[in-house]
Amino acid sequence: MNNIFCPNCGSDSIEKKIPEGDTHYRNVCSSCNHIIYENPKVVVGSVCTYKNQFLMCKRAIDPQKGLWTLPAGYLENDESVEEGAIREAFEEAYAKIKINNLLAVYSLKNVNQIQVLFHSELIDENIKPGTESLEVGLFNWENIYWDKIAFPSVIWALTNFKERQNLDTFRVFTNPI
Ligand SMILES: [Zn+2]
Q: What's the domain range around 158?
């Protein structure tokens, strides 16, 4: 018994098995043989700077409500990773940003997430909390609430940005226009 329905035929007789020629267990519909693949979700976001400050958002929603994070969230269909990062900054902090370059790609295997994080710059300092934030702010490095960070990857990204700050950076290639 489970609550999974087949997206192809609507049947609830779903079986966990390794399809012929496959290597992983899948949910397979016993009625129409449709295989329900589950793959990692993509999270996009940015370490967003303004002068020497960092844009941080205090989460208004669970998980980790009340803790601080970077503007980031799930990529939508029909959206590029850059567009997604720009949208998330606006949704969470009404921040208008310019994508600078790719900072990091993290594989979070325990939560089946791929995080694609950019360095971005605020175009102007007009920010205010969006519906997913209790508070937003620009912080000097030493004033970031390091003991109230929502997710380990937020610390990774900020630290990686700092490590890279004085190095020559390379342009990361994306889809051709
Ligand atoms: Zn089916």
A: 41-164
